[in-house]
Amino acid sequence: MKKNIFYLMIGVVAVALLAIFWYSVENFTPLFFTIAFVVGIILLYLAYRKVDDFVEDERSARITEKAAMRTLQVFWVCFCAFSIMAVMDLLDIHRLSRAFWLERGPDTVPTVVMPLRMIGYIQLVLLCLMIFLYVGFRVYYARKYGEWETDEE
Amino acid sequence: MKNKIKVYRAMQDLTQEDLALAIGVTRQTILAIEKGKYVPSLDLAFRIARYFKVNVEDVFTYEEGVRTIDID
Known about the structure:
The complex is a heterodimer. In chain A, 75% of the residues lie in helices and 0% in strands. Chain A is mostly helical. Chain A has two domains: 1-54; 57-153, no CATH class. The longest helix of chain A has 33 residues, at 58-90. The radius of gyration of chain A is 23 Å and the shape is flat. By secondary structure, chain B is mainly α. Chain B has one domain: lambda repressor-like DNA-binding domains (434 Repressor (Amino-terminal Domain)), CATH 1.10.260. A two-stranded antiparallel ribbon of chain B has the order 1-2. In chain B, α2 packs across α3 (27-34). The interface between A and B is medium-sized, with 16 and 20 residues.
């Protein structure tokens, strides 16, 4: 299979998934979209394996590898920092504060600042930001390895 | 790491695209190696040298104490 056909397939799958997403939202069938998403990705993966004119050399692989590694390094710090804070908030760890034990008053215990659902949403947003982070690192390393360098040829 | 890929290409009247196709990499990779932006793996270095029918040391020269670009 030629790579242009593969790119065309990506477009077709994306449009199909968009339609299924709309259908799922309208009819409140989230499971349908979830299954369709997984099937779509599997289809694309199978098609990718059939492409024979892809040239992914070691430099491209290294750029991808480095970008992915850096993304994970930055992401897990942000994600864990937020998650730890959220868990501390949920478990009401403010009770360990010095002020609470010195004054022993109920007013010193702060109210929960973040509802459980909000924590989930923020974690989802962080996951989405991971994609942008990856793209940023990808661009950075591609430039570093002369991806858009021009030559006299 | 210095290299003489450009010289060998000129000697054999090859374009970057020709060389890239012959050794199975992209033109950008050849360009990046020539400009010293990317240090190839041992495998790729040998493939390039074999293509020009010379030793690796003839194409690539290791410079003592000169730190090559790393991706950080």
